[in-house]
Sequence to fold (570 residues):
Amino acid sequence: MARDATARDSVAEVIQLPARAAARANARGVSAAGDLATRAASATTSTARTGIESLMRWTHNAVDDWGRDARLSDRIRSVSGLRWDVMIGGQHHLERVRGGLIVVNSRRFSLSPIWAALHLGRALDRPVRFVGRPDIAPAGPALQRLGGLLSDPAELTRVLASGELVVLGAATTMSPHRVGVVDHLLVGAAVAAKVPVFPAATASSSLQRSARLQIGTAVPVNRRRRGPLAELELADDLAIAIGTMLDEFTWNGWLLS
Amino acid sequence: MGGELGSRVTSLLEEEPWVGSLEGIDADPPRRRLHRAVFHRIVPGQHDRIVEVVKKFNPHVVVHVAVWEPHSRAAPGVARDLTDDAATSILGAAAECRALESIVIRSGIEIYGRARNSATRPDEDTAINPTTQYGRMVAGIESTARRIGDRIGVTVGTLRLGTVVGAHVPSPLGRLLRMPAVPYSALADPPFTVSLDHDAANSFVAAARLRLDQPLNIVAPGAITALQAIRRGRRLPIPLFGPEWAIAKTVAYLMGAPIPDHVIEVLHRGRLADGARAREVLELAPTATTAEVIDQLYSWPSVVRTPARAAVA
Fold:
Protein backbone atom coordinates (compact mmCIF):
# COMPACT_ATOMS: atom_id res chain seq x y z
CA MET A 1 0.00 0.00 0.00
CA ALA A 2 2.80 2.29 0.94
CA ARG A 3 4.50 1.32 -2.32
CA ASP A 4 1.38 2.29 -4.29
CA ALA A 5 1.30 5.65 -2.59
CA THR A 6 4.95 6.20 -3.49
CA ALA A 7 4.22 5.26 -7.09
CA ARG A 8 1.31 7.72 -7.22
CA ASP A 9 3.56 10.40 -5.77
CA SER A 10 6.20 9.80 -8.38
CA VAL A 11 3.58 9.95 -11.16
CA ALA A 12 2.37 13.23 -9.73
CA GLU A 13 5.95 14.44 -9.73
CA VAL A 14 6.28 13.79 -13.42
CA ILE A 15 2.92 15.17 -14.46
CA GLN A 16 3.22 18.19 -12.18
CA LEU A 17 -0.46 18.51 -11.40
CA PRO A 18 -1.32 22.18 -10.90
CA ALA A 19 -3.08 21.56 -7.56
CA ARG A 20 -0.11 19.72 -6.17
CA ALA A 21 2.33 22.24 -7.60
CA ALA A 22 0.31 25.01 -5.98
CA ALA A 23 0.20 23.14 -2.71
CA ARG A 24 3.94 22.70 -2.81
CA ALA A 25 4.42 26.34 -3.65
CA ASN A 26 2.24 27.32 -0.71
CA ALA A 27 4.17 24.92 1.42
CA ARG A 28 7.34 26.67 0.42
CA GLY A 29 5.80 29.93 1.54
CA VAL A 30 5.18 31.51 -1.82
CA SER A 31 2.31 33.95 -1.64
CA ALA A 32 -0.76 33.57 -3.85
CA ALA A 33 -0.05 36.87 -5.61
CA GLY A 34 3.49 35.78 -6.38
CA ASP A 35 2.19 32.51 -7.74
CA LEU A 36 -0.25 34.34 -9.97
CA ALA A 37 2.53 36.54 -11.29
CA THR A 38 4.71 33.50 -11.93
CA ARG A 39 1.90 31.80 -13.80
CA ALA A 40 1.21 34.90 -15.86
CA ALA A 41 4.89 35.22 -16.71
CA SER A 42 5.05 31.54 -17.60
CA ALA A 43 1.98 31.82 -19.84
CA THR A 44 3.41 34.89 -21.54
CA THR A 45 6.74 33.15 -22.12
CA SER A 46 4.95 30.09 -23.49
CA THR A 47 2.82 32.22 -25.82
CA ALA A 48 5.85 34.15 -26.99
CA ARG A 49 7.77 30.94 -27.62
CA THR A 50 4.87 29.46 -29.57
CA GLY A 51 4.59 32.69 -31.55
CA ILE A 52 8.29 32.73 -32.37
CA GLU A 53 8.22 29.06 -33.38
CA SER A 54 5.21 29.69 -35.62
CA LEU A 55 6.92 32.71 -37.15
CA MET A 56 10.09 30.68 -37.73
CA ARG A 57 8.11 27.88 -39.39
CA TRP A 58 6.18 30.40 -41.46
CA THR A 59 9.33 32.12 -42.70
CA HIS A 60 11.35 28.94 -43.25
CA ASN A 61 11.25 29.20 -47.02
CA ALA A 62 13.59 28.20 -49.81
CA VAL A 63 14.42 29.84 -53.11
CA ASP A 64 15.00 28.14 -56.45
CA ASP A 65 17.84 28.63 -58.96
CA TRP A 66 16.49 32.03 -60.04
CA GLY A 67 15.66 33.24 -56.55
CA ARG A 68 11.90 32.55 -56.63
CA ASP A 69 10.38 31.60 -53.31
CA ALA A 70 7.49 29.21 -53.99
CA ARG A 71 5.90 29.43 -50.55
CA LEU A 72 6.11 33.20 -50.41
CA SER A 73 4.62 33.39 -53.92
CA ASP A 74 1.71 31.19 -52.79
CA ARG A 75 1.07 33.42 -49.81
CA ILE A 76 1.22 36.61 -51.85
CA ARG A 77 -1.11 35.06 -54.43
CA SER A 78 -3.54 34.15 -51.65
CA VAL A 79 -3.43 37.70 -50.32
CA SER A 80 -3.79 39.11 -53.83
CA GLY A 81 -7.07 37.19 -54.03
CA LEU A 82 -8.49 39.96 -51.86
CA ARG A 83 -7.77 42.39 -54.67
CA TRP A 84 -8.17 40.29 -57.82
CA ASP A 85 -10.64 37.51 -58.46
CA VAL A 86 -8.93 36.09 -61.52
CA MET A 87 -10.71 34.00 -64.14
CA ILE A 88 -8.28 32.17 -66.42
CA GLY A 89 -9.13 30.80 -69.85
CA GLY A 90 -7.09 28.94 -72.44
CA GLN A 91 -4.63 27.48 -69.97
CA HIS A 92 -4.82 24.15 -71.82
CA HIS A 93 -2.53 25.72 -74.44
CA LEU A 94 0.27 25.69 -71.84
CA GLU A 95 -0.26 22.32 -70.24
CA ARG A 96 2.14 20.40 -72.45
CA VAL A 97 4.58 23.23 -72.97
CA ARG A 98 7.99 22.96 -71.30
CA GLY A 99 9.25 26.51 -71.77
CA GLY A 100 7.26 29.37 -73.23
CA LEU A 101 6.74 33.12 -73.32
CA ILE A 102 3.29 34.57 -72.61
CA VAL A 103 2.86 38.16 -73.76
CA VAL A 104 0.07 40.13 -72.07
CA ASN A 105 -1.35 43.61 -72.52
CA SER A 106 -0.99 45.89 -69.53
CA ARG A 107 -3.09 48.83 -68.43
CA ARG A 108 -1.12 51.42 -66.48
CA PHE A 109 -0.85 50.61 -62.74
CA SER A 110 -2.72 47.33 -63.25
CA LEU A 111 0.31 45.10 -62.41
CA SER A 112 -0.98 42.67 -65.03
CA PRO A 113 2.24 40.66 -65.54
CA ILE A 114 2.55 40.08 -61.78
CA TRP A 115 -0.96 38.88 -61.02
CA ALA A 116 -1.08 36.97 -64.29
CA ALA A 117 2.12 35.09 -63.36
CA LEU A 118 1.02 34.39 -59.79
CA HIS A 119 -2.45 33.12 -60.66
CA LEU A 120 -1.36 31.25 -63.78
CA GLY A 121 1.27 29.48 -61.67
CA ARG A 122 -1.48 28.36 -59.32
CA ALA A 123 -3.68 27.19 -62.22
CA LEU A 124 -0.87 25.22 -63.87
CA ASP A 125 0.75 24.11 -60.61
CA ARG A 126 4.21 25.12 -61.76
CA PRO A 127 6.34 28.23 -61.35
CA VAL A 128 5.53 31.05 -63.72
CA ARG A 129 7.87 34.04 -63.78
CA PHE A 130 7.45 37.55 -65.09
CA VAL A 131 9.73 40.09 -66.74
CA GLY A 132 10.26 43.53 -65.30
CA ARG A 133 11.81 43.75 -61.89
CA PRO A 134 14.11 46.64 -61.01
CA ASP A 135 17.63 45.81 -59.88
CA ILE A 136 17.52 47.90 -56.75
CA ALA A 137 16.60 47.04 -53.15
CA PRO A 138 14.10 46.56 -51.68
CA ALA A 139 11.71 46.27 -54.66
CA GLY A 140 14.08 44.23 -56.85
CA PRO A 141 14.85 41.39 -54.42
CA ALA A 142 11.22 41.34 -53.23
CA LEU A 143 9.93 40.88 -56.79
CA GLN A 144 12.69 38.34 -57.44
CA ARG A 145 11.16 36.21 -54.65
CA LEU A 146 7.89 36.28 -56.57
CA GLY A 147 9.57 35.21 -59.81
CA GLY A 148 10.59 38.58 -61.23
CA LEU A 149 13.28 38.74 -63.91
CA LEU A 150 15.31 41.63 -65.26
CA SER A 151 14.19 43.12 -68.58
CA ASP A 152 17.28 41.75 -70.25
CA PRO A 153 17.00 39.63 -73.43
CA ALA A 154 20.04 37.52 -72.48
CA GLU A 155 18.58 36.70 -69.08
CA LEU A 156 15.18 35.95 -70.59
CA THR A 157 16.80 33.63 -73.15
CA ARG A 158 18.53 31.66 -70.41
CA VAL A 159 15.34 31.32 -68.39
CA LEU A 160 13.26 30.22 -71.38
CA ALA A 161 15.93 27.79 -72.53
CA SER A 162 15.88 26.16 -69.12
CA GLY A 163 12.20 25.29 -69.66
CA GLU A 164 10.43 27.99 -67.67
CA LEU A 165 7.17 29.79 -68.37
CA VAL A 166 7.55 33.57 -68.36
CA VAL A 167 4.95 36.35 -68.59
CA LEU A 168 6.02 39.47 -70.46
CA GLY A 169 3.97 42.66 -70.37
CA ALA A 170 3.57 44.88 -73.41
CA ALA A 171 4.14 48.60 -72.88
CA THR A 172 1.49 50.04 -70.57
CA THR A 173 -1.45 51.98 -71.98
CA MET A 174 -4.12 54.19 -70.45
CA SER A 175 -6.93 52.37 -72.24
CA PRO A 176 -7.69 48.76 -71.28
CA HIS A 177 -8.92 48.11 -74.83
CA ARG A 178 -5.58 48.89 -76.45
CA VAL A 179 -2.34 46.96 -76.63
CA GLY A 180 0.96 48.74 -76.08
CA VAL A 181 4.15 48.11 -78.02
CA VAL A 182 5.57 44.62 -77.58
CA ASP A 183 9.36 44.77 -77.11
CA HIS A 184 10.77 42.86 -80.06
CA LEU A 185 14.15 42.41 -78.33
CA LEU A 186 12.51 40.55 -75.46
CA VAL A 187 10.34 38.55 -77.86
CA GLY A 188 13.56 37.74 -79.69
CA ALA A 189 14.69 35.89 -76.57
CA ALA A 190 11.95 33.33 -77.20
CA VAL A 191 13.06 32.99 -80.82
CA ALA A 192 16.65 32.46 -79.67
CA ALA A 193 15.57 29.91 -77.06
CA LYS A 194 13.32 28.19 -79.63
CA VAL A 195 10.24 28.21 -77.39
CA PRO A 196 6.63 29.06 -78.37
CA VAL A 197 5.17 32.51 -77.76
CA PHE A 198 1.56 32.86 -76.61
CA PRO A 199 -0.58 36.00 -76.73
CA ALA A 200 -2.73 36.59 -73.68
CA ALA A 201 -5.32 39.28 -73.03
CA THR A 202 -5.80 40.66 -69.55
CA ALA A 203 -8.55 42.81 -68.14
CA SER A 204 -8.99 44.01 -64.61
CA SER A 205 -11.13 46.54 -62.87
CA SER A 206 -9.78 49.51 -60.95
CA LEU A 207 -12.69 49.38 -58.53
CA GLN A 208 -13.85 45.77 -58.53
CA ARG A 209 -12.10 42.48 -57.91
CA SER A 210 -12.95 40.97 -61.28
CA ALA A 211 -9.95 40.20 -63.46
CA ARG A 212 -9.55 38.00 -66.49
CA LEU A 213 -6.67 36.30 -68.28
CA GLN A 214 -7.31 34.66 -71.63
CA ILE A 215 -4.46 32.75 -73.26
CA GLY A 216 -4.49 32.24 -77.01
CA THR A 217 -2.79 29.76 -79.30
CA ALA A 218 0.91 30.16 -79.96
CA VAL A 219 1.84 32.66 -82.64
CA PRO A 220 4.17 31.04 -85.18
CA VAL A 221 7.55 32.56 -85.91
CA ASN A 222 8.27 33.41 -89.53
CA ARG A 223 11.15 31.00 -90.09
CA ARG A 224 11.84 32.36 -93.57
CA ARG A 225 13.33 35.47 -92.01
CA ARG A 226 16.98 35.08 -91.17
CA GLY A 227 17.47 38.38 -89.38
CA PRO A 228 15.77 40.49 -86.70
CA LEU A 229 12.72 41.05 -88.91
CA ALA A 230 11.42 37.72 -87.59
CA GLU A 231 11.22 39.18 -84.10
CA LEU A 232 9.71 42.46 -85.26
CA GLU A 233 7.01 40.64 -87.20
CA LEU A 234 6.38 38.29 -84.29
CA ALA A 235 5.96 41.25 -81.93
CA ASP A 236 3.45 42.85 -84.33
CA ASP A 237 1.57 39.58 -84.73
CA LEU A 238 1.37 39.21 -80.96
CA ALA A 239 -0.04 42.72 -80.54
CA ILE A 240 -2.68 41.99 -83.21
CA ALA A 241 -3.59 38.66 -81.60
CA ILE A 242 -3.95 40.24 -78.14
CA GLY A 243 -6.02 43.08 -79.63
CA THR A 244 -8.35 40.56 -81.29
CA MET A 245 -8.82 38.74 -78.00
CA LEU A 246 -9.54 42.01 -76.20
CA ASP A 247 -12.20 42.80 -78.81
CA GLU A 248 -13.85 39.47 -78.03
CA PHE A 249 -14.05 40.22 -74.29
CA THR A 250 -17.49 41.10 -72.93
CA TRP A 251 -16.72 44.42 -71.33
CA ASN A 252 -18.60 45.12 -68.16
CA GLY A 253 -19.09 48.85 -68.60
CA TRP A 254 -16.55 51.26 -67.18
CA LEU A 255 -15.89 49.14 -64.09
CA LEU A 256 -13.78 46.67 -66.07
CA SER A 257 -11.32 49.29 -67.11
CA MET B 1 48.81 21.18 -53.15
CA GLY B 2 49.04 22.48 -49.59
CA GLY B 3 45.57 23.95 -49.22
CA GLU B 4 42.46 21.94 -48.50
CA LEU B 5 41.21 22.02 -52.09
CA GLY B 6 44.68 21.38 -53.56
CA SER B 7 45.26 18.40 -51.27
CA ARG B 8 41.88 16.96 -52.15
CA VAL B 9 42.49 17.37 -55.89
CA THR B 10 45.88 15.67 -55.52
CA SER B 11 44.49 12.73 -53.58
CA LEU B 12 41.81 12.26 -56.27
CA LEU B 13 44.39 12.52 -59.06
CA GLU B 14 46.47 9.82 -57.34
CA GLU B 15 43.57 7.42 -57.85
CA GLU B 16 43.22 8.19 -61.56
CA PRO B 17 44.60 5.44 -63.82
CA TRP B 18 45.65 7.91 -66.53
CA VAL B 19 47.89 9.88 -64.16
CA GLY B 20 51.54 8.81 -64.20
CA SER B 21 53.83 10.80 -61.97
CA LEU B 22 52.41 13.66 -59.97
CA GLU B 23 54.20 16.63 -58.43
CA GLY B 24 52.98 19.69 -56.60
CA ILE B 25 54.17 23.00 -55.24
CA ASP B 26 52.85 25.06 -52.35
CA ALA B 27 54.00 27.28 -49.53
CA ASP B 28 52.26 25.04 -46.98
CA PRO B 29 52.57 21.26 -46.57
CA PRO B 30 49.67 19.09 -47.82
CA ARG B 31 46.66 18.75 -45.51
CA ARG B 32 46.18 15.08 -46.44
CA ARG B 33 48.34 12.01 -46.61
CA LEU B 34 49.48 11.59 -50.19
CA HIS B 35 50.89 8.29 -51.45
CA ARG B 36 52.32 8.90 -54.91
CA ALA B 37 52.60 12.64 -55.28
CA VAL B 38 55.90 14.45 -54.73
CA PHE B 39 55.58 17.72 -52.85
CA HIS B 40 57.88 20.74 -53.15
CA ARG B 41 57.59 23.38 -50.49
CA ILE B 42 58.30 26.66 -52.27
CA VAL B 43 56.79 30.07 -51.58
CA PRO B 44 55.12 31.66 -54.64
CA GLY B 45 57.68 34.48 -54.85
CA GLN B 46 60.64 32.17 -55.53
CA HIS B 47 60.28 32.19 -59.31
CA ASP B 48 63.67 30.61 -60.05
CA ARG B 49 63.06 27.58 -57.86
CA ILE B 50 59.57 27.12 -59.26
CA VAL B 51 60.81 27.32 -62.85
CA GLU B 52 63.59 24.84 -62.04
CA VAL B 53 61.21 22.30 -60.45
CA VAL B 54 58.50 22.62 -63.10
CA LYS B 55 60.94 22.43 -66.04
CA LYS B 56 62.61 19.38 -64.56
CA PHE B 57 59.27 17.63 -64.13
CA ASN B 58 58.04 18.67 -67.63
CA PRO B 59 54.30 18.04 -67.05
CA HIS B 60 51.64 17.20 -69.63
CA VAL B 61 48.88 18.81 -67.58
CA VAL B 62 49.11 21.66 -65.09
CA VAL B 63 46.29 22.11 -62.57
CA HIS B 64 46.62 25.56 -61.03
CA VAL B 65 44.60 25.85 -57.81
CA ALA B 66 46.81 28.43 -56.08
CA VAL B 67 44.25 31.15 -55.41
CA TRP B 68 44.12 32.90 -52.06
CA GLU B 69 40.61 34.15 -51.40
CA PRO B 70 40.84 37.43 -49.44
CA HIS B 71 40.46 36.90 -45.70
CA SER B 72 40.39 33.12 -46.07
CA ARG B 73 44.00 32.39 -45.17
CA ALA B 74 45.57 35.79 -45.75
CA ALA B 75 44.65 39.46 -45.55
CA PRO B 76 43.39 40.91 -48.86
CA GLY B 77 46.68 42.60 -49.81
CA VAL B 78 48.79 39.54 -49.04
CA ALA B 79 46.25 37.28 -50.76
CA ARG B 80 46.44 39.38 -53.92
CA ASP B 81 50.25 39.32 -53.96
CA LEU B 82 50.45 35.58 -53.30
CA THR B 83 47.88 34.83 -56.01
CA ASP B 84 49.64 37.04 -58.55
CA ASP B 85 53.06 35.57 -57.73
CA ALA B 86 51.79 32.00 -57.94
CA ALA B 87 49.99 32.58 -61.24
CA THR B 88 52.96 34.31 -62.83
CA SER B 89 55.62 31.87 -61.72
CA ILE B 90 53.77 28.55 -62.05
CA LEU B 91 51.97 29.28 -65.32
CA GLY B 92 55.07 31.01 -66.67
CA ALA B 93 57.22 27.99 -65.78
CA ALA B 94 54.67 25.61 -67.29
CA ALA B 95 54.87 27.53 -70.55
CA GLU B 96 58.55 26.57 -70.78
CA CYS B 97 57.72 22.85 -70.77
CA ARG B 98 57.75 21.09 -74.14
CA ALA B 99 55.41 18.31 -73.05
CA LEU B 100 52.64 20.63 -71.87
CA GLU B 101 49.26 19.87 -73.43
CA SER B 102 46.73 21.42 -71.12
CA ILE B 103 46.30 23.93 -68.30
CA VAL B 104 43.38 23.85 -65.89
CA ILE B 105 43.01 26.88 -63.63
CA ARG B 106 40.84 27.85 -60.72
CA SER B 107 38.70 30.95 -61.09
CA GLY B 108 35.51 32.12 -59.41
CA ILE B 109 32.01 33.26 -60.30
CA GLU B 110 33.00 36.58 -58.69
CA ILE B 111 34.48 37.30 -62.12
CA TYR B 112 31.00 38.17 -63.50
CA GLY B 113 30.56 40.93 -60.93
CA ARG B 114 27.27 42.17 -59.54
CA ALA B 115 27.01 45.62 -61.07
CA ARG B 116 23.56 47.18 -61.38
CA ASN B 117 21.48 45.33 -64.00
CA SER B 118 24.06 42.59 -64.41
CA ALA B 119 22.80 39.10 -65.21
CA THR B 120 21.02 37.45 -62.28
CA ARG B 121 22.36 33.98 -63.09
CA PRO B 122 25.24 34.35 -65.54
CA ASP B 123 26.38 31.47 -67.69
CA GLU B 124 29.82 31.05 -69.24
CA ASP B 125 28.95 33.26 -72.23
CA THR B 126 28.13 36.26 -70.04
CA ALA B 127 30.66 39.07 -70.32
CA ILE B 128 32.94 39.35 -67.30
CA ASN B 129 32.81 42.55 -65.27
CA PRO B 130 34.41 41.99 -61.85
CA THR B 131 33.28 44.41 -59.16
CA THR B 132 35.33 43.15 -56.21
CA GLN B 133 39.00 42.62 -55.49
CA TYR B 134 38.64 38.83 -55.58
CA GLY B 135 36.82 39.07 -58.90
CA ARG B 136 39.65 41.13 -60.35
CA MET B 137 42.21 38.63 -58.98
CA VAL B 138 40.62 35.67 -60.73
CA ALA B 139 40.13 37.74 -63.88
CA GLY B 140 43.89 38.36 -63.82
CA ILE B 141 44.61 34.63 -63.55
CA GLU B 142 42.25 33.84 -66.43
CA SER B 143 43.85 36.53 -68.55
CA THR B 144 47.38 35.25 -67.81
CA ALA B 145 46.42 31.63 -68.56
CA ARG B 146 44.61 32.57 -71.78
CA ARG B 147 47.59 34.55 -73.03
CA ILE B 148 49.93 31.65 -72.31
CA GLY B 149 47.56 29.18 -73.95
CA ASP B 150 47.31 31.30 -77.11
CA ARG B 151 51.06 31.82 -77.21
CA ILE B 152 52.21 28.21 -76.89
CA GLY B 153 49.12 26.52 -78.31
CA VAL B 154 47.81 24.50 -75.38
CA THR B 155 44.25 24.13 -74.13
CA VAL B 156 43.20 26.23 -71.15
CA GLY B 157 40.25 25.07 -69.06
CA THR B 158 38.85 27.46 -66.47
CA LEU B 159 36.72 26.35 -63.56
CA ARG B 160 34.79 29.27 -62.10
CA LEU B 161 33.91 28.06 -58.64
CA GLY B 162 31.16 29.37 -56.45
CA THR B 163 32.24 30.21 -52.91
CA VAL B 164 33.91 26.98 -51.82
CA VAL B 165 32.50 25.73 -48.54
CA GLY B 166 33.44 22.46 -46.92
CA ALA B 167 34.92 20.79 -43.88
CA HIS B 168 38.11 22.60 -42.86
CA VAL B 169 37.96 24.88 -45.91
CA PRO B 170 38.95 28.38 -44.83
CA SER B 171 36.15 30.53 -46.21
CA PRO B 172 35.18 34.01 -45.02
CA LEU B 173 31.53 33.38 -45.93
CA GLY B 174 31.49 30.07 -44.06
CA ARG B 175 33.17 31.66 -41.07
CA LEU B 176 30.65 34.51 -41.02
CA LEU B 177 27.65 32.20 -41.26
CA ARG B 178 28.94 30.11 -38.36
CA MET B 179 29.12 33.07 -35.99
CA PRO B 180 26.55 32.99 -33.16
CA ALA B 181 24.88 36.14 -34.48
CA VAL B 182 25.01 36.85 -38.20
CA PRO B 183 24.25 40.17 -39.91
CA TYR B 184 22.23 40.20 -43.14
CA SER B 185 20.75 42.82 -45.43
CA ALA B 186 17.16 43.32 -44.32
CA LEU B 187 16.24 45.28 -47.46
CA ALA B 188 17.68 42.87 -50.01
CA ASP B 189 18.57 39.42 -48.63
CA PRO B 190 19.35 38.18 -52.14
CA PRO B 191 19.97 34.54 -53.10
CA PHE B 192 23.43 33.07 -53.58
CA THR B 193 24.94 29.72 -54.41
CA VAL B 194 28.06 27.91 -53.19
CA SER B 195 30.30 24.98 -54.19
CA LEU B 196 31.06 21.93 -52.10
CA ASP B 197 34.82 21.36 -51.87
CA HIS B 198 34.45 17.70 -52.85
CA ASP B 199 32.49 18.58 -56.01
CA ALA B 200 34.99 21.30 -56.88
CA ALA B 201 37.88 18.82 -56.52
CA ASN B 202 36.09 16.26 -58.71
CA SER B 203 35.59 18.95 -61.35
CA PHE B 204 39.33 19.65 -61.48
CA VAL B 205 40.10 15.97 -61.98
CA ALA B 206 37.49 15.64 -64.73
CA ALA B 207 38.72 18.83 -66.42
CA ALA B 208 42.31 17.57 -66.40
CA ARG B 209 41.25 14.20 -67.78
CA LEU B 210 39.21 15.77 -70.59
CA ARG B 211 41.83 18.46 -71.37
CA LEU B 212 39.11 21.08 -70.93
CA ASP B 213 39.31 24.04 -73.29
CA GLN B 214 36.58 26.42 -72.05
CA PRO B 215 35.35 28.15 -68.93
CA LEU B 216 32.78 26.33 -66.78
CA ASN B 217 30.77 27.43 -63.76
CA ILE B 218 31.05 24.97 -60.88
CA VAL B 219 28.21 25.60 -58.48
CA ALA B 220 25.85 23.49 -56.42
CA PRO B 221 22.27 23.38 -57.72
CA GLY B 222 19.72 25.61 -56.03
CA ALA B 223 20.17 28.80 -54.09
CA ILE B 224 19.72 30.17 -50.61
CA THR B 225 19.50 33.60 -49.01
CA ALA B 226 21.56 34.72 -46.05
CA LEU B 227 18.53 34.77 -43.75
CA GLN B 228 17.54 31.27 -44.83
CA ALA B 229 21.11 30.06 -44.22
CA ILE B 230 21.16 31.71 -40.79
CA ARG B 231 17.83 30.10 -39.97
CA ARG B 232 19.07 26.66 -41.03
CA GLY B 233 22.05 27.09 -38.72
CA ARG B 234 19.85 28.29 -35.85
CA ARG B 235 21.95 31.43 -35.51
CA LEU B 236 20.65 34.79 -34.40
CA PRO B 237 19.88 36.91 -37.50
CA ILE B 238 20.76 40.58 -37.18
CA PRO B 239 18.93 42.66 -39.82
CA LEU B 240 20.96 45.61 -41.05
CA PHE B 241 19.74 48.46 -43.22
CA GLY B 242 22.79 50.46 -44.26
CA PRO B 243 25.13 52.50 -42.09
CA GLU B 244 25.35 49.79 -39.43
CA TRP B 245 27.31 47.60 -41.82
CA ALA B 246 30.51 49.46 -40.94
CA ILE B 247 30.00 48.56 -37.28
CA ALA B 248 29.04 44.97 -38.16
CA LYS B 249 32.21 44.58 -40.24
CA THR B 250 34.37 45.82 -37.38
CA VAL B 251 32.65 43.58 -34.83
CA ALA B 252 32.94 40.57 -37.14
CA TYR B 253 36.63 41.35 -37.68
CA LEU B 254 37.22 41.50 -33.93
CA MET B 255 35.37 38.22 -33.48
CA GLY B 256 37.65 36.50 -35.99
CA ALA B 257 35.38 36.50 -39.05
CA PRO B 258 36.49 39.43 -41.22
CA ILE B 259 34.13 40.21 -44.10
CA PRO B 260 35.90 40.97 -47.42
CA ASP B 261 34.21 43.05 -50.12
CA HIS B 262 33.14 40.05 -52.22
CA VAL B 263 31.26 38.59 -49.23
CA ILE B 264 29.62 41.97 -48.57
CA GLU B 265 28.57 41.90 -52.22
CA VAL B 266 27.05 38.43 -51.73
CA LEU B 267 25.01 39.69 -48.79
CA HIS B 268 23.81 42.81 -50.61
CA ARG B 269 23.52 41.75 -54.25
CA GLY B 270 23.57 37.94 -54.17
CA ARG B 271 25.65 35.66 -56.39
CA LEU B 272 24.14 33.03 -58.64
CA ALA B 273 25.55 31.21 -61.65
CA ASP B 274 24.30 28.67 -64.16
CA GLY B 275 26.20 25.41 -63.72
CA ALA B 276 24.28 23.35 -66.29
CA ARG B 277 27.05 23.35 -68.89
CA ALA B 278 29.63 21.98 -66.45
CA ARG B 279 27.37 19.06 -65.58
CA GLU B 280 27.00 18.30 -69.27
CA VAL B 281 30.65 18.72 -70.30
CA LEU B 282 32.31 17.11 -67.28
CA GLU B 283 29.53 14.51 -66.89
CA LEU B 284 29.53 15.06 -63.16
CA ALA B 285 26.46 15.20 -60.97
CA PRO B 286 26.83 17.46 -57.92
CA THR B 287 26.63 15.54 -54.67
CA ALA B 288 24.86 18.26 -52.69
CA THR B 289 22.50 21.17 -53.29
CA THR B 290 23.29 24.63 -51.96
CA ALA B 291 20.97 24.12 -48.98
CA GLU B 292 22.64 20.78 -48.19
CA VAL B 293 26.10 22.35 -48.37
CA ILE B 294 24.96 25.01 -45.90
CA ASP B 295 23.50 22.29 -43.65
CA GLN B 296 26.85 20.51 -43.73
CA LEU B 297 28.57 23.79 -42.86
CA TYR B 298 26.58 23.94 -39.65
CA SER B 299 26.86 20.26 -38.82
CA TRP B 300 30.64 20.37 -38.46
CA PRO B 301 31.70 20.57 -34.82
CA SER B 302 33.27 23.90 -33.89
CA VAL B 303 35.85 22.73 -31.36
CA VAL B 304 36.27 19.18 -30.15
CA ARG B 305 37.76 19.24 -26.67
CA THR B 306 39.40 15.96 -25.68
CA PRO B 307 40.09 15.73 -21.96
CA ALA B 308 43.48 14.49 -20.83
CA ARG B 309 43.57 10.76 -20.07
CA ALA B 310 45.76 11.22 -17.04
CA ALA B 311 46.48 14.21 -14.86
CA VAL B 312 49.89 15.65 -15.46
CA ALA B 313 51.67 17.33 -12.57
